[in-house]
Amino acid sequence: MCGIVGYIGGRQAFPVLLNGLRRLEYRGYDSAGVALVDGSGSLKVYKCRGKVADLERFTDSKDVGGTIGIAHTRWATHGEPNDVNAHPHYSQSGNIAMIHNGIIENYSVIRDALSEHGYTFQSATDTEVLVQLIEYIRNTSRCSLLEAVRSALKRVVGAYAIAVVEKDNPDEIIAARKSSPLVVGLGDGEYFLASDATPIVEYTDKVVYVGDEEIVHICRGRELKVMNLDNEQAQIDIRTLELSINQLEKGGYPHFMLKEIHEQPKTIVDCIRGRIPADGSEVVLSGVVANKEKFMGARRIIIVACGTSWHAALIGERAIEDMCRIPVEVEYASEFRYRNPVISPDDVVIAISQSGETADTLAAVELARNAGAFIFGICNVVGSSVARATDSGAYIHVGPEIGVASTKAFTGQVTVLTMLALTLAREKGTVRDEKFRSVAKGLVELPSLIEKVLSQDDKIKDLSKIFTYAHNFIYLGRGYNYPAALEGALKLKEISYIHAEGYPAAEMKHGPIALIDSEMPVVAIAPDDHIYEKTVSNIQEIKARKGKIIAVVSEGNAAIHSLADYCIEVPVTEECLSPIVVSVPLQLLAYYIAVNKGRNVDQPRNLAKSVTVE
Known about the structure:
Radius of gyration: 25 Å
Oligomer: single chain
Largest sheet: 8 strands, antiparallel
Number of helices: 19
Strand content: 15-25%
Structural class: alpha/beta
Distance between the termini: 10 Å
Shape: globular
């Protein structure tokens, strides 16, 4: 949550900061603000409720000069979204300004202590408490800003990524992180700071990912310095970005979400490139092969994830158990971290996160690591916290996902999990060669199958008009496609705000069937698989109660056409791969219903892309 941008160098900071905020707005869009320091010793803070465009209008006639600055786009945690609670926050004297991503858990205790020393607070945020603490330490200890920040951070409990500037220091930014992402871009005589690399890529491809509990001292004209909270110098690892500006633009599409749905044939190709040859003769997932002893000796596999990644995990669970014959458990990371799970050194824990920064998933990783388990990460963002915190892993390589509702990351995650199952099954000898080749070849063919589904875009667009004003939806699936039903329902909820629930189709008769009437749309996922006839029976139960049925069926299926009110046909593929194919029309259906309702599909209310707080 929340987007952080910073700049120091020879060019005017404000345009760089504003452009960076636009790139990061998917991380939060409740309010936005900027702090600028100019050569005359002036610290100017401008902020307002709303989106980055509102900040741009607000600053239209303001003095935005200065070659050093920090900026922020907020997803509210403490205090409602308004002008006062927007970042940056001033210290009481007005000398220090700070932006913050994360939650300071002991802020109320610190606030009470500072109040006793005469400090007053304008906002309801934990961030203002931290900047006031920094100033208090700076004044009472007569230390440098860097030392004051370091000392303050040793007193706080919680998660943070911060950037701090001071009126009397026009050549310095202090930044730090703990459990929230932060990256520094290295330019020619200039530095960039951001929550992720998207605001940096058009200026430089050289970056440093800030480590947990590290502080960055950025000074104009000097080398970057990184240290830990104990003031020990940290190693600086400069990475080269594999990211292009074109990946961050809409490319003629009205929304990033639609662009990302249509990118899926390409992203699947990128995901399997170098891992599966065209003939499907082998699958090489290097993170599994290099650690095959850990996987071969695993008593069980535990997969931890949240949201869409959890749905992908459920599909992976079936694939791994089916092909590898290893018990698999799928856990919500947010629940896993707060119970007392039984974990042993011969367990393998797979952590899935698109951003690689999901707070609950990172906490689950730490819990599993402390119990001695081997940790395998699946994420999209190179250099992310999950990638660095795990023993090994695999990137999904689908490129930046800007739309808040995940689409191409979901299909990429399922693809990687399937490759993991195939790789491990071949090593264990638990899959017949014919089955192995069939699924591997199916993965190679996925891009062309998804292209066929995308060719129905206009048909699904027209279908969506019929259901734009529905108040509820039910999604049904069985086997591998029960998680696809959950994911379809989640997409509709996230971007259209229509209440939707996913169920195993057979569970309808155990309660939810009471909801069925002529006003209830039901999306039934019924491709040709080994339980197809069972799913047809469930559809008949709904039809008998006058439910409106939208069926997702295999090409050429005539039987369900006579039962369903509307049908969307998808190409036939391997059963374990069908969730990837059927998810695409469900993404399009949700997208077009939301567009018809006038929703902001890329930035749905109350949601942020990277959930870096609890």
